[in-house]
Amino acid sequence: MKVSYHGHSVVKVKTSTHTILIDPFISGNEACDLDANKVEPDVILLTHGHNDHVGDTVEIAKRTGALVVAPNELALYLGQKGISTHPMHIGGARTFEFGHVKFTQAFHGSSYTEEDGSIIYTGMPGGILLTVEGKTIYHLGDTALFTDLKMYGEMNDIDLAFITIGDNFTMGPEDAMIAAEWIKAKVVVPVHYNTFPVIEQNPDDFVQKVKNGKARKMEIGEELVL
């Protein structure tokens, strides 16, 4: 299985049978190296409804027929746009053909802003525990630090985690370092930084400060083999 990072919170997981995209904010994301007109996922997983996470979901799903798995209200909203969705909710888990998905808590907001400026409430935000081919990836989504992260670390053998460090809208580096310790992942990768001026951070500094040397910065387009 190959896992790659594509700027902001965009993650691609390529297994022996499926390609999975998480939070595909591609168009308008200068940090992203993917082409929304060419990427070919079988599945799209969404942590919440903000535009910088939903991104190109509808266009990609219409073109490819990808299944979109998302928190309930977001899935229902996107389903009205003519794509295939599967609604889930916090604490819920399901085994799909491509792998096992469980939604965790995330302390954030979730809404989608339409082109006319209207705002659509899209339910609770979440994190995603994705278990595929015997490995578990934890995408925390946009979140503040909260103590239940300790529980997720104790309950799951997490191989790779993606943790927000941008601050202002999510955890900053200091809180993310605590989160990294609590979830006990073998490898921690910082995400959700430097896309906009308000979330500019130094990922190298974060990586150096995380205990036990288990954090690493992933370059745009870089792949890890799990």
Automatic annotation (TrEMBL):
What organism does the record attribute this protein to? Ornithinibacillus salinisoli
Q: Which residues form the Metallo-beta-lactamase domain?
A: 7-192
- Alphabetically ordered keywords of this record: Hydrolase
Extract one GO molecular function annotation from the record. Answer: hydrolase activity
Query: InterPro entries, from UniProt?
Result: Metallo-B-lactamas, RibonucZ/Hydroxyglut_hydro, UPF0173, UPF0173_UPF0282_UlaG_hydrolase
**SMART domains recorded:** Lactamase_B
**NCBIfam families annotated for this entry?**
PRK00685.1
The similarity annotation says:
Belongs to the UPF0173 family.
**Lineage from the top down?**
Bacteria, Bacillati, Bacillota, Bacilli, Bacillales
Name-wise, this protein is UPF0173 metal-dependent hydrolase ACFSJF_18800
